[in-house]
Amino acid sequence: MSGAVPKIRVRGLKKAFGDKIVLDGVDLDVMPGTSMVVIGGSGTGKSVLLKCILGLIEPDEGSIEIDGADLLHMDGKAQTAARARIGMLFQNGALFDSIPVWENVSFALLAQRRVARAGAREKAGEVLGQVGLSPSVGDLSPSELSGGMQKRVGLARAIAAQPEILFFDEPTTGLDPIMGAVIDGLIVDCVKKLGSTAVAITHDMASASRIGDRAAMLHRGKIIWSGPADKLLDSGNDVVDQFTHGRREGPIQMELRR
Amino acid sequence: MTAPLDWLAALGAGAIRVCRIVGSIVLFALSGLSHIVRPPFYGRLFGRAMMEIGYYSLPVVALTALFTGMVLALQSSTGLSRFSAETAMPTLVVLSITRELGPVLAGLMVAGRVGAAMAAEIGTMRVTDQIDALTTLSTAPMKYLVAPRLLAGIVALPLLVVVADILGVFGGFFVATAKLGFNPSTYIATTLSNMQTQDVVSGLVKAGVFGFLIALMGCYHGYNSRGGAQGVGAATTLAVVSASVLILAFDYFLSELFFVR
């Protein structure tokens, strides 16, 4: 890396739940305007890592910097302001059932008072258009949408406030391969259009190679490999190779057998 | 030899657990109350909670109060006749309804109907990451989800109890005049002359406290639910049971406060 300040810099991040150590000293740099994909098996702490950066879980140790400012040592207001610059697409969409789609999409804009309620509906229609949905979808309830549409609405909600940083938690989980590719394409377009820095966590290799500029693998609470996303299938690391190629035999399975 | 120590350790662990739960509920309540008075205010959510707690609970509270007033007149007539004190029946009915039965029965009915719904709604939001999503969208979940419901509980339940008081007294009046041969104007005059402002006000204050407790238990158990559908189910049960027990316990303490000198 050059001397440029990473947009997101994580150092020595540790988190345990009781006796179970989930993150055991994670170091991660994400440079401005790039997309980082974090891969790893189920239960390796990928979502916990994202939630620590978002402030949804308090880490036990370590530092999390955004543009060089340590999030964990800011006062409450500064933390809230820093985190308002982050948009998040949750694994299951996490749309609010009690309000219509248009209100879900414009939620952050209304919360940050960047748009009046009267103009929010129109703005939501515009953002829905960016993710390939008709503005009329805005009048529906989230429960009336298919899984793919819910992901698109979740993406629209994440990008509506034009965040500097976007997080994607398993963006293609539960979708068919075509819809998965559509969602990946939308993510790439949105990130490029907004000029945002993106972090996606996934165990879908096709999705990882489509979304990421760079990739990192989280294993046993640590980042064990990072490099260009197009090197994922040819990383030279036994653990990464086994994971990306989905082989039964290899160091990960050997650990399971112990 | 270690058995007494084990017993003592278990007792201590239990006491610590109880203190932890009580402390957690008190901190949750204080946080919720502090968000009620600090902007931004979510008027629409408060209105929705008022409809949910107040308007939609009106039929069940009204019917409960009406039939309670009727059965109270019927039963007290039997009891009082043994002492040739039937004329005290209007006073007994109005005091029982306004001081105790109106607020307590309305509280228990609302706890069953609304406390469960609140815990289920907020619990589902918790297990489907909607509460985390609120935080990422620059919105404090305590302010958005909890504060409007707490305020609505405090405001709506006294309004329901006003209706319950009127219908409960009317139920007693109806049975007394239609079935037990009371003179209507005498019944009304006795009721009004023996009812004091403090009887009604104390009932309404109790109702405000019960409304707060119902909303607090619904929000607290929903907010802290874990583990999918089973966790939400457990939160719902806990919300109703704990609100009901707290209503009865606080009813005693508030009665001590208002009426024992």
Key attributes of the depicted protein:
heterodimer; A: alpha/beta; Rossmann fold; B: 261 residues; mainly alpha; 0% strand
Structure, described:
The complex is a heterodimer of chains A (258) and B (261). Chain A contains ten helices and ten strands. Chain A folds into two domains: 1-85 and 163-227, 3-Layer(aba) Sandwich (Rossmann fold), CATH 3.40.50; 93-160, no CATH class. With 258 residues, chain A is α/β, with parallel strands linked by helices. In chain A, the strands form two sheets. Chain A has a six-stranded mixed sheet, sandwiched between helices. In chain A, strands 2-1-4-5 form a four-stranded antiparallel sheet, with helices on one face. In chain A, helix 6 runs parallel beside helix 7 (177-194) and helix 7 (177-194) packs parallel to helix 8. The mean pLDDT of chain A is 87. Chain B has 261 residues and is mainly α. Chain B has one domain. Helices cover 87% and strands 0% of the residues of chain B. Chain B contains nine helices and no strands. In chain B, helix 1 crosses helix 6 and helix 3 packs parallel to helix 6. The longest helix of chain B has 39 residues, at 89-127. The radius of gyration of chain B is 22 Å and the shape is globular. The A-B interface holds A 51, 54-56, 80, 83-84, 86-88, 90-92, 94-98, 107-108, 111-112, 157 and B 121, 124-125, 128-130, 132-139.
